[in-house]
């Protein structure tokens, strides 16, 4: 499996990314990390590893620059700037479209927490490119009006004990276009971070199967 640490230029900024591309990859998934998280998130890396073993490439990328992250640690403002984060995911999508080793792969998004909203914004902004979206413990409601423009099949995974987020997911799903394929997977006994034994493994398996269905 090819592993590359790279810098993705987006206009006046550059974002750090880790790309893992299995041999004969059958698709590529961009990870949009959640509140206060980064490409080093152990939960997302666990999911990415399961996707890689399922012949799906992954792009784990910081949506904020180092300077922005320092500001966000103090203010917690940028992690909730969904239009900004969604624009960054869309920009990463455009960058991938020009990379010889990546542009031929069907593209999906995996979003966690607020990153799920950013992924859905990008899916609405790039409807001809985004082929599938998975949300883990996400806040898809924060995508707002962009939900109406999502065409990609979307899977929403929520812990059964994460009742507030579960309700917000149901509200967001109700705003998707009728023709958009979607599914809500509830993991019994799991809380917001899926820290319970086996919970994250279930998340990864659901995501792998969704992407293998819609990207291959």
- Biggest pleated-sheet summary: 8 strands, mixed
CATH domain class name: Alpha Beta
Question: Hey, roughly how much beta strand do the residues contain?
Answer: 15-25%
Q: Count structural domains.
A: 1
Q: Which strand order do you get reading across the main beta sheet?
A: 1-2-4-3-5-6-7-8
Assign the CATH superfamily. Answer: Alpha/Beta hydrolase fold, catalytic domain
CATH architecture name: 3-Layer(aba) Sandwich
Looking at how many chains there are and whether they match, the oligomeric state comes to: single chain
Total helices: the number is: 6
Note down, in words, how this protein is organized.
The mean pLDDT is 94. The protein has a single domain (13-215), classed as 3-Layer(aba) Sandwich (Rossmann fold). The two termini are 18 Å apart. Strands 1-2-4-3-5-6-7-8 form an 8-stranded mixed sheet, with helices on both faces. 36% of the residues lie in helices and 25% in strands. The protein has 216 residues and is of the alpha/beta class.
A few lines on this structure:
The protein has 216 residues and is an alpha/beta fold. Helix content is 36%, strand content 25%. Helix 1 packs across helix 6 and helix 3 packs across helix 4.
Show the helix and strand layout.
Elements (H helix, E strand, L loop, with lengths): L1 E9 L2 E9 L6 E5 L9 H12 L3 E5 L4 H10 L6 H15 L10 E6 L1 H12 L4 E7 L17 E6 L3 H11 L8 E6 L11 H17 L1
